[in-house]
Amino acid sequence: MINNVREQNGLNALAFDVSLNAVAETRSQDLMNRNYFSHYTPEGTNVFDVMRASGVSFRYAGENLAQGAPASVGTAEGFMNAWMNSPTHMANILRAQYTKIGVSMVEIDSRRVVTTVFTN
């Protein structure tokens, strides 16, 4: 869906990246396991810190988060619509400098969290 929107706006599709997918998975699991929802961990670190610790180099990077509770309301279409209606999230999706993407969805009990990580 993200690549469809990018292509509709004259941008190149993003390539799936295994390392970014691992970063997205780490972020999603942490949000669920420690029951918070923020771009910053309780200790104040963020996705950029996770990427550096994982050996991911980047010049441009961003993160989109979404959650649904109950999990059944957290559809891909719903998350995409929410991101496109948020100027900062839409800017990540449409940033021309991004070339790679990693995506993770984690569901525990009645909560679903999606993390999308972008880099160049």
Explain what the structure shows.
By secondary structure, the protein is an alpha+beta fold. It is built from five helices and four strands. Strands 1-3-4-2 form a four-stranded mixed β-sheet, sandwiched between helices. A hairpin with a 2-residue loop joins strand 3 and strand 4. The model has no long low-confidence stretch (mean pLDDT 95).
Strand order of the largest sheet: 1-3-4-2
Write the element-wise H/E pattern from the N-terminal end onward: HEHHEHHEE
The biggest sheet, with number of strands, parallel, antiparallel or mixed sense and barrel status, is: 4 strands, mixed
CA(first)-CA(last) distance: 19 Å
Mean pLDDT: 95
Please work out how many helical segments DSSP would assign. 5
State the helical fraction.
25-40%
> Which structural category do the helix and sheet elements fall into?
alpha+beta
Q: Which percent range describes the beta-strand content?
A: 15-25%
Please count the beta strands (DSSP E, at least 2 residues each). 4
Please state the overall shape, judged from the principal axes of the Cα atoms: globular
Rg from alpha-carbon coordinates: 14 Å
Low-confidence stretches: none
List keywords for this structure.
120 residues, alpha+beta, globular
Secondary-structure topology with pairs:
Layout: H1 2-8, E1 15-16, H2 18-33, H3 47-53, E2 61-68, H4 76-84, H5 87-93, E3 100-108, E4 111-119
Parallel strand pairs: 1-3
Antiparallel strand pairs: 2-4, 3-4
What's this, in brief?
By secondary structure, this protein is of the alpha+beta class. The chain contains 5 helices and 4 strands; from the N terminus they run αβααβααββ. Strands 1-3-4-2 form a 4-stranded mixed sheet, sandwiched between helices.
